[in-house]
Amino acid sequence: MLNRIPSRIRIPFLLAAIAFLIHLVCNLHYGFHGDELYFIICGQHPQWNYVDQPLVAPLLAAASQMFGSSLVLLRAVPALFAGAGIYVTCLTVLELGGAAYAQFLSAIVVFFLPVLTDFGMKLHTDMVGLWSWPLLALWIVRLTKGANSRLWVPIGALMGVSILSKYSVLFFAAALLVGLLLTPERRILYSRWFVVGALISAIIALPSFLWQVHYGYPMLELLRAVQHGKNVIVGPMACLGQQVLLSGFLAPFWTSA
C-alpha cells in the first residue's frame, strides 16, 4: 500500500496513520467525558451557535452517534484530527526543507506535547484546530514561496470553518496578519484573491455571528463570567510557567524556537 503513495508524502502519511491508530486504540480505555455527552445532546438539536461553543464540535459529536451510542466512533473523530494535524505538520517541515529526521522529530513533538495530546484524546472544540491551524500556516508559507494567489480562496473557507469550530482562531488569524504586515511577505496580501478569501471566511461565519447578535452575545457574557468567577489572572512569569507545565518535557522545543 505504501508503494502507491508518492514518496514525498510517504513519511507524513505513515506518521499520521500511526498517530491516528494510537489515539484510536488508547482513547477507548476511559468512558464518555461529561463534555462529550453535552456536545452530543447539543448536536442533536442543531443551531447556528450555542451559548458556550460554536456548532462544529456538537454536530460532529452527534453525527458519530447516528447509528447508536458508540465510544469508538466518537473518539475516532478527535483521533482523525490528531493524525491529520501530524500529517500537515510534516508537510510544513517538508515545505521548509526538512528531511526525514526533521519530520519524525516534529511528529514526536506534536504528538507528545501534553496539551496537544489532550486535544486528540476526546471530542471537544479544540480538536479541529489540530489540523486547521497548521494547514492555514502551511498555505500561507506556500503563498510566500510563490504559490498561486487563488490559494486565498481555500484559506478563507478553512478560516470560516475554523471560526465555527473555535472562536480563538481569530487570535491566530490576527497573529498571522500582523506577522505578514511586519515583514516583506506582506506582498502576498496585495491581491484581489486575499479580499475574496476574507469575504468567503466572513460569509461562512456570518450566521454564527448573527445568532450571537440575536441572543444578546451570550458568548461574551459567558467569557465575562469565566474571567471573574473561574479563571485566575496571573502575571507574565506565572503564565510562562503554566505554559511550560502544559508542554511537559518538550517545552524546550518551542521556548527555543
Describe this structure as you would to a colleague.
The mean pLDDT is 89. The longest helix has 25 residues, at 71-95. The two termini are 36 Å apart. This protein has a domain at 1-127. It is 67% helix and 0% strand. It contains 13 helices and no strands.
**Oligomeric composition of the shown chains:** single chain
Tell me the Rg in angstroms.
19 Å
Low-pLDDT runs of 5+ residues are: none
Q: Indicate the proportion of strand residues.
A: under 5%
Supply the number of helical segments. 13
Structural class computed from helices and strand pairing: mainly alpha
First-last Cα distance? 36 Å
Query: Please, what is the average pLDDT?
Result: 89
What's the helical proportion of residues? 55-70%
Order of helices and strands: HHHHHHHHHHHHH
What profile does the largest beta sheet have? none
Principal-axis shape: globular
Number of strands: 0
Q: Which key features would you list for this structure?
A:
single chain; mainly alpha; about 260 residues
Brief rundown of the structure:
With 257 residues, the chain is an all-alpha fold.
Topology:
Layout: H1 10-26, H2 34-43, H3 56-64, H4 71-95, H5 100-112, H6 114-119, H7 129-144, H8 152-163, H9 169-181, H10 192-214, H11 218-229, H12 236-247, H13 251-255
